[in-house]
Description:
The chain is an alpha+beta fold.
Amino acid sequence: xxxxxxxxxxxxxxxxxxxxxxxxxxxxxxxxxxxxxxxxxxxxxxxxxxxxxxxxxxxxxxxxxxxxxxxxxxxxxxxxxxxxxxxxxxxxxxxxxxxxxxxxxxxxxxxxxxxxxxxxxxxxxxxxxxxxxxxxxxxxxxxxxxxxxx
Length: 150
């Protein structure tokens, strides 16, 4: 990956809706050369996917919650089982197995607290191997970036 590839990727991370001609002009390549580079970056796996990032409030999911979960049994299989339950929930937008005192971190985009209560019943009560969970509701977002610095 060279300087031009990094420039293409940085531009695409900021706005992937640009046409190939616009992107080519911005990086100083012909459209065909630019298209070849973008295809190569996709085939190599450097570009994982291209998505539209929605406004959560306008999509009806204005409440963001960060939940840390401590499991009773900490084995790999138990962690995977809990993660399978969590990722099946529509409101869970991110789920991470982590190190340290916490076993799992979940990020949720919720419609309302009733939805959160129902999810709590499914994920954190009785037979789900959860010892305890802590919920933090986001009141202000200082930075939320999807771009990876290259």
